[in-house]
Amino acid sequence: MEDIQSEPDLEMGQLDATGEQNLSKFFEEVKVIKIDMEEITNLLIDLHDLNEESRSTHSAKILKGIRDRINSDMVTILQKAKKIKSRLGSIDQSNVANRRLSKAYKEGSPVDRTRVSVTNGLRVKLRDMMHDFQALREKILKDHKEGLKRRRGKEKEFEGKAELVKENQARHEALKEIQRSLTELHQVFLDMAILVETQGDEINDIEENVACAKIHISGGTDGLYYANQMKKRGSNWGCWIGVFMLILMGILVSTLAS
Questions:
Q1: pLDDT class for 207, splitting at 50, 70, 90?
Q2: What is the rounded average pLDDT of the residues 203-228?
Q3: Suppose 144 and one of 64, 126, 175, 194 were both cysteines; which one would form an S-S bond, judging by CB atoms 3.0 to 4.6 Å apart?
Q4: 238 domain residue, yes or no
């Protein structure tokens, strides 16, 4: 939790007891997501080790056991990835709803900045985790296909060797199951990637809107200043015209009197 909370800690000095209480439940939700992320990271490491082990084994029985463990890991990753996606969406909704609870939690407040900062930190970690999965997915598929290709060549060379044929069949079945599981898991991560990128676009849109608002406000301020200056100039010109008319009328009266 320290890495995600380090930046928001700068805000904590500005929070009162109510603000800290408001964030306590939020951090509980974040902690659950963090635990799931760490477990997925550990499972990805285990998948990598199992893949390396599968490349060196020549026993169909051992290979089947490795395949079952790989599938078990991927099922667990799939379940946890779906939970993370759901919880991250809930946190987004909670952040928006929290702004309406009190003026103290409005957009840009210390509480809101803390929630947004931590949520974005989760997204960065999630994005890194998805990149790790994608790299591992490509490596597993590549290794299994290359291994199957090499063993098919050996099968032709040692035609009729039952154990080798059995091993190749086991590898082929393992590859099909692993591909199916990886494809399903990949789709979930793609959905999560869209969630991350969409939120990033929204953040960019907010920044652009704020910048535009500043321009409009600045432009409006300049316009008001210009209008006030013109108004002052108009008033000054009115005074001078009035004085000029009085002088002119005085001259005319003097001329007529003479």
A1: very low
A2: 42
A3: 175
A4: no
- What is the residue type of 13? G
Tell me whether residue 85 is in a domain: yes
DSSP string, the chain: -HHHHTTTHHHHTT--HHHHHHHHHHHHHHHHHHHHHHHHHHHHHHHHHHHHHHHH---HHHHHHHHHHHHHHHHHHHHHHHHHHHHHHHHHHHHHHHTTT-GGGSTTSHHHHHHHHHHHHHHHHHHHHHHHHHHHHHHHHHHHHHHHHHHHHHHHHTTT-HHHHHHHHHHHHHHHHHHHHHHHHHHHHHHHHHHHHHHHHHHHHHHHHHHHHHHHHHHHHHHHHHHHHHHHHHHHHHHHHHHHHHHHHHHHHHHHH-
pLDDT given at position 56: 77
Amino acid at 29: E
Mean pLDDT to the nearest integer, 106-110: 87
Domain count across the chain: 1
User: For 41-50, what is each residue's pLDDT tens digit?
Assistant: 999 899 889 8
Instruction: Output the six-digit token pair for 86.
Output: 């759901």
pTM of the model: 0.61
Q: What is the mean pLDDT of residues 57-75?
A: 80
Give the CATH number of the domain where residue 178 resides: 1.20.58.70
Distance in angstroms (rounded) separating the CA atoms of residues 181 and 186: 8
* Structural domain that includes position 195: 2-203
